Amino acid sequence: MLTDEQHRQKMQQRKAVQAQRLAERTREKGLIIVHTGNGKGKTTAALGMVLRSLGHGYRVAIIQFIKGAWEPAEKAVLSHWSDQLAFHAMGEGFTWETQDRQRDIACAQAAWELALSYLTNPEYRLVLLDEINVALKLDYLTVTQVLQGLARKPEMTHVILTGRGAPPALIDAADLVTEMTLIKHPFQEQGVKAQPGIEF
Amino acid sequence: MLTDEQHRQKMQQRKAVQAQRLAERTREKGLIIVHTGNGKGKTTAALGMVLRSLGHGYRVAIIQFIKGAWEPAEKAVLSHWSDQLAFHAMGEGFTWETQDRQRDIACAQAAWELALSYLTNPEYRLVLLDEINVALKLDYLTVTQVLQGLARKPEMTHVILTGRGAPPALIDAADLVTEMTLIKHPFQEQGVKAQPGIEF
Fold first, then answer.
1. What are the CB-based long-range contacts (under 8 Å, 24+) for A141-147?
2. What is the per-residue pLDDT across B21-53, written as a single tens digit (0 to 9) for each?
3. Residue A44 annotated as catalytic
4. What's the pTM value of the predicted model, to 2 decimals?
5. Residue A195 lies in a domain
6. Chain A residues close to B34, C-beta within 8 Å
7. Is the pLDDT of residue B174 over 90?
8. What does the pLDDT read at residue A70?
9. What is the DSSP string of B33-102?
10. ipTM of this predicted complex?
11. What InterPro entries would the database entry show (chains A, B) (predicted)?
12. How close B82 comes to chain A (CA, Å)?
């Protein structure tokens, strides 16, 4: 256990290290961000970034590759920024709802074409491709297609790609990758249902 | 590779499984939620849950145990809900800024007393204890203290506790635990600085 004075000295050193780190990090660039893993929070953390960007006055586009992932509460929240935000729910539901692969593929491709129009438009500072990793995993889109699209984005545009099972080539191309890992989940263990304010 | 018809049949089975799962999950309860790990998105995902809850019309309290974790863009966003939201920035900065352990401990204890007043008030459906895990890790608060407080919350109140290094006893007491794992980070690898709309 350190004395208060030793603590003070240690913190003084740490502050110097922090200051040097900040001084070394001067580059600004649009980031390719991936939220993947089986845990919660992939879309929710992206929603937080969307709101931060809106709070800065930036234009944001959300393309939702699986319909139903966003619920009325999100829409109510986002309606405050309808002049800055383009929101497109492109999917037709989970794959087990539609039960029609050809229609799912057509939907995913249409969503991707729309996504490209925002990705290449420098007015949009953040583009959220929600659940696109699931479309990649199901081969509704190819990784090559998506990487070629990401290569066309303006330097300062941030892109967030969410969903389980992000392919390795996408992770290689990304700047910031976070894996949300499920440690404990009440739905499985306690029979608790999805609850308003938390899940939707 | 499945034929389209095999795909349809597989999805039909999966839909039945999903329906059964939903039917089994009937319980509603306030959740103790922990976001921990060294990755990004712990606070951001909590912010997303806060906004969902506000979108549902619920009252929400945010107690920030380390000042500086929330920036003007978040505050601009949250100002739309000032009638539903209690927001308290209680810390005085990172430990290496204050360099004064006794003052940090006093701040953390004051933040905890305030948190308790919201945790025990049934009007608040969600209480976010942002970066409290860091205060626990530094022994500014004891786990016993926090677990006793959580035990006093009304049945339907959700609590989110964020920060690296959540103690095992807290994880045991929690309902939903997600670990955000850093896979790749542009600050370390590319010298990129924290950027508006993403980091703050």
1. A141/A108, A141/A109, A141/A112, A143/A167, A143/A169, A143/A170, A145/A112, A146/A112, A146/A170, A147/A173
2. 777 777 778 999 999 998 888 998 998 899 889
3. yes
4. 0.81
5. no
6. 183
7. yes
8. 62
9. EEEESSSS-HHHHHHHHHHHHHHTT-EEEEEESSTTSS-HHHHHHHGGGTTTEEEEE---S-HHHH--HH
10. 0.73
11. CblAdoTrfase_CobA, Co_AT_N_dom, P-loop_NTPase
12. 13
Closest CA to A171 of A136, A197, A140: A136
A112 phi and psi, to 5 degrees?
Answer: -65, -40
pLDDT in tens, chain A (200 residues): 788 888 888 888 888 887 887 777 777 889 999 999 988 889 989 988 998 899 889 999 999 998 665 666 777 888 889 899 999 987 666 566 667 888 888 989 999 999 999 999 999 999 999 999 999 998 999 999 999 999 999 999 999 999 999 999 999 999 999 999 888 777 666 777 777 777 77
Please name the residue ranges forming H helices in chain A.
Answer: 4-24, 42-55, 72-78, 95-98, 101-119, 132-137, 143-151, 168-173, 186-190
User: Tell me, what amino acid is at A105?
Assistant: I
Q: Domain for residue B199, yes or no?
A: no
The CATH number covering residue A149 comes to 3.40.50.300
**What's the CA gap between A150 and A127, in Å, rounded?**
11
Task: List, for residues B102-142, the tens digit of each pLDDT value.
Answer: 888 898 999 999 999 999 999 999 999 999 999 999 899 99
Does B126 touch chain A if contact means CB atoms closer than 8 Å?
A: yes
In this structure, the dihedral spanned by the alpha carbons of residues B113, B115, B116 and B120, taken in order and rounded to 10 degrees, is 150
Domain containing residue A126: 39-190
How near does any CA of chain A get to the CA of B90, in Å? 20
Q: Which of residues 127-156 of B touch A (CB under 8 A)?
A: none
Count up the domains in chain A and report the number: 1
Please indicate, yes or no, if residue B3 is contained in any of the structural domains: no
CA distance A97 to A137: 17
Q: Do B48 and A47 touch (CB under 8 A)?
A: yes
Q: How far apart are the first and last CA of chain A?
A: 44
Interface of B with A in 3-32 (CB under 8 A): 4, 7-8, 11-12, 14-15, 18, 22, 24-29, 31
Note whether B84 contacts A: Cβ–Cβ < 8 A: no
Q: Does residue A38 have an active-site annotation?
A: yes
